[in-house]
């Protein structure tokens, strides 16, 4: 692990962005894409052939995003996100923003304009989830010995 990787867990560390995923309706392949803003073309990183997703047929009819942690055999629950509970400062914990989806051959749409955020937490003492004012949510927590999960 280099120094840059170590700084990702800090509140003032570098930010990382994960790519987008979508199904190409012409080929049926699922693409991993760096979605660019404005008039820039998206950068296609690679794809999974449609044959790997037989059960999904021509696409998906629901979308979801989530995360999970699992305690060790000693009962200690690990941190989630960058290890910080969501606070009033949106940049203090891990966050998901601009979660986009693409319906058939349309432009990408912001998931939050058409959905709600369901909160499901096993231990609010150790983990948190907070909807932001715009199109994002923050999540994370330190984990620990007495999370009860």
From TrEMBL:
Residue ranges of every copy of the Neprosin PEP catalytic domain listed in the record? 1-148
Q: Which Pfam families match?
A: Neprosin
InterPro entries per the record? Answer: Glutamic_endopeptidase (IPR053168), Neprosin (IPR004314)
Q: What PROSITE patterns does the record point to?
A: NEPROSIN_PEP_CD (PS52045)
What is the name attached to this protein's record? Neprosin PEP catalytic domain-containing protein
